[in-house]
Design goal:
This protein has about 300 residues and is α/β, with parallel strands linked by helices. It has 13 helices and 11 strands. Bound molecules: alpha-D-ribofuranose and calcium ion.
C-alpha cells in the first residue's frame, strides 16, 4: 500500500456507506488500516454489520472491521432511523458479509494502532465521536500518533436534530468536546458545507449508469435517503454528508475553510451539541480547528462517480 495510513470511524448509515465505498475505491491514496464502528444512525450491532456488508460489496476483505462503543458517553443513544431506515442501509440489496467482525474492541484497536504507528495516522470520523473520545481519555498520549483528524459534524447555522445541533454532535456532545479540546490537528466539515453537496436525480442516475453492483447499490441507497432532510432544509436533494470527509482527504482543493475556535455546548438542554465557531481568534478563543466553509459539489460527485466506477 502506498497511500496514507487511515482509520475510518463511522455509523453506517447511508452516507457513511458511500464514504466507505469512496475510501475502499482508493487504495492508491489510502492504506486503510481498519474501520471502527459506533452507535449512531442505528444501534451498534447494525453499524458494524453494515460496515462489513459494504466491505463485502467492495470486495475489500483485507480491511478489518471493529465494533466500538454501543452508546454515547453520558446521554442515552438517539438514532436516525427515519433518515437511514430500520436497517441503516434501507433500499439496497447488499451481500451478506463473509468478513468476520474483529474480536478486539474498536477503542482498543484505535489505541493499539495509534500508539504503535510507524508513521502518524489520519482519522476520518463520520459518526458520534464516542470511540475517539474514550480512546483519548484512556490514553492521552494517543495524540502523538495522530497526523490529522477530519470529522463530519456540527453546524454554524441551523442544526438537523434540533434548531441548534447537528446529529453527530447532538448524540454525543461530551465526546465531541473531548475531541475538540484535545489539541489535535482537526478539520471539521459542518452541515453548512455538506448542505452544498446534495444528490440531485441526475447525480444519482450517474451512479446507476455505472452498470456495476456498486453503482446500482449506491443509486438504490440514495433513492429515499434523506428526502425528509432535503424537504426540511429546502434542498434540491439529500445532503451527502460523510463522503465529504473522504473527498476532502482525496482532493482538499474542492473545499475552502479557515482556522477557527470551535467549542461544543454540553450543559444546555436547549442548545445541547451546539458547535460554537468563530474565526475571530483571540487569547480566549485560540484556533483549535480548521472549519470548512465551501465545497465544489460538481467536483465531489465527479470524484465519487470516477472512483466508484473502479470497484
Ligand atoms: O448530521 C449528519 C451526520 O450524522 C452524518 O454523519 C450522518 O451519517 C449521521 O451520522
Ligand atoms: Ca455518519
Amino acid at each position: 500500500m502506498t497511500g496514507r495510513p487511515l482509520i475510518i470511524d463511522c455509523d453506517p448509515g447511508v452516507d457513511d456507506a458511500i464514504a466507505l465505498l469512496l475510501a475502499l475505491a482508493s487504495p492508491d491514496a489510502f492504506d486503510l488500516l481498519g474501520i471502527t464502528t459506533v452507535a449512531g444512525n442505528v444501534p451498534l450491532p447494525l453499524t458494524q454489520y453494515n460496515a462489513r456488508r459494504i466491505c463485502q460489496l467492495a470486495q475489500r476483505w483485507d480491511v478489518p472491521v471493529f465494533a466500538g462503543c454501543p452508546r454515547p458517553m453520558i446521554y442515552p443513544l438517539l438514532t436516525a432511523k427515519p433518515i437511514h431506515g430500520i436497517t441503516g442501509l434501507d433500499g439496497a440489496a447488499l451481500p451478506e458479509p463473509s468478513l468476520p467482525l474483529q474480536a478486539q474492541h474498536g477503542v482498543a484497536f484505535l489505541i493499539n494502532q495509534l500508539l504503535a504507528a510507524p508513521e502518524p495516522i489520519t482519522l476520518a470520523c463520520l459518526g458520534p465521536l464516542t470511540n475517539l473520545a474514550i480512546a483519548l481519555i484512556q490514553c492521552p498520549d494517543l495524540a502523538l500518533g495522530i497526523d490529522q483528524v477530519v470529522i463530519m459534524g456540527g453546524s454554524l447555522g441551523p442544526g438537523n436534530v434540533t434548531p441548534s445541533a447537528e446529529f453527530n454532535c447532538y448524540v454525543d456532545p461530551h465526546a465531541a468536546r473531548v475531541v475538540v479540546e484535545a489539541g489535535l490537528n482537526l478539520t471539521c466539515i459542518p452541515l453548512d458545507v455538506t448542505h452544498q453537496v446534495v444528490t440531485t436525480p441526475e447525480r444519482r442516475m450517474a451512479f446507476a449508469a455505472l452498470g456495476t453492483a456498486v453503482g446500482q447499490a449506491t443509486a438504490a441507497l440514495l433513492q429515499d435517503y434523506g428526502q425528509r432532510d432535503a424537504e426540511r432544509h429546502g434542498l434540491a436533494g439529500s445532503p451527502l454528508h460523510d463522503p465529504c470527509v473522504i473527498a476532502y482527504l482525496l482532493e482538499p482543493a474542492l473545499f475552502t475553510g479557515r482556522p477557527m475556535h470551535l467549542a461544543i455546548e454540553t450543559e444546555s438542554s436547549l442548545c445541547r451539541g451546539r458547535t460554537v465557531a468563530t474565526p475571530d481568534l483571540t487569547e480566549l478563543t485560540p484556533a483549535n480547528a480548521t472549519v470548512l466553509e465551501t465545497a465544489q459539489a460538481d467536483g465531489i460527485y465527479q470524484l465519487l462517480t470516477e472512483r466508484l466506477a473502479k470497484l
